[in-house]
Amino acid sequence: MRTPREHFRLVVKYTPFHSRTVAANELNLWHRWRDYSVADAYFDVSLEYTALRNTCAVFDISPMTKHRITGPDALAFMNRLVTRDVAKIKPGRVGYAVWCDEQGQVVDDGTIFHLSPGVYRLCSQERQLDWLHTARLGFDVTVVEETEDVAALSLQGPTSCATLCALGLTGIETLTPFGMRTFAFGEAELLVSRTGFTGDLGYELWIDPAHAEALWDALFEAGNLYGIRPLGTHALDIARIEAGYIQAGVDFLPADHAIRADRTRSPFELDLAWLVDFSKPHFTGRRALLAEQSRGSRYRLVRLDVAGNKPATDAYVYDAKRRVVGTVTSAVWSPMSKASIALASVAMPHGAVGTPLWAEIYYQKELKWNRTNVECTVLAGPSYDPPRRKVTPAPMR
Questions:
Q1: What is the model's pLDDT at position 12?
Q2: CA–CA gap between residue 96 and residue 89 (Å, rounded)
Q3: Element housing 133 (H / E)
Q4: Given 3.30.1360.120, 1.10.3720.10, 1.10.10.10, 1.20.1260.10, which CATH number is that of 6-60+150-231?
Q5: What is the domain partition of the chain in residue ranges?
Q6: Range 65-147: architecture per CATH
Q7: What is the pTM of this model?
Q8: Distance CA 37, CA 16 (A)
Q9: Does the structure show a pLDDT above 80 at 4?
Q10: Residues paired with 216 in a beta bridge
């Protein structure tokens, strides 16, 4: 018999690696990523970050929403869905992409894995099954969410390649950025892609959930001499801000979630113009984006070097005349840059590279709120972009 309010019960799921992550989580810090329980930190945020930038670290990405798209019209469907030309993502390659509504506003961003001819895996932070099923009308394609069917780990950092070599993945050092390759792992097939969300050398490992625990154990044994550590979301967030990567729901509001239409952003307003290809066939939002390209955008995403040592979390951004021209969406003290850095959405025409802006920062110390106004410099790119991220063969140190 159904108990009262049972249909309102929140389902909490555990990833296929939960038995290992819960054992490693000395701090017992967790949060919900969609329906899954994931670790915010395992033993110390600073030390987890240090491992990521100096040795290697492992993050459980199993909760990432994953869709398998197949059928005779798979390519045509994907090209209609996203703004970039999917035909250029060959089998065995991965491509970053965004997709928009008819007003040219970003619904979500994610990665497209071209697994084999006519077979794609679309990974995103947000659940997109409803949007994809609506978009597939008129196309001979099958769209299936396979989030629970694929376990995944992200292995990132300078010794990530050496760790995978020690795991027995022969030739992994020759895998190029955004490439993928399959390897035998016991009786299972292990898919490895040279992708990640840290702006560093790194890989993502995809496997059947039945073999997840064995993969975790083997990976940590192989990486024992290479400083491998588990990585929580707090340390990962520092790394992604250093790399200048945006996050849905933080740096932009997904268009299908917005109540106020003027709060969304287009690809141009997120510094993603390079993902918009007007030379390919029609895609959702094309007409609106052409109009925006002609008249100009409302905003731009900027990367800021913030004076002082206080993170500019949720700060207003001002111009030289003390007019509010934007807001900080992500901010952190960068251990690698030894600087306070931020991502901000700034109204046009403000925010040109090299121009000064100001941030109004509030911070609390011993129950007292303080306010400071500091100068910010607009950066030309991310604050952290090591050469090893793009080098092939991948360095083994």
A1: 85
A2: 10
A3: helix 129-135
A4: 3.30.1360.120
A5: 6-60+150-231, 65-147, 298-383
A6: 2-Layer Sandwich (3.30)
A7: 0.94
A8: 11
A9: no
A10: none
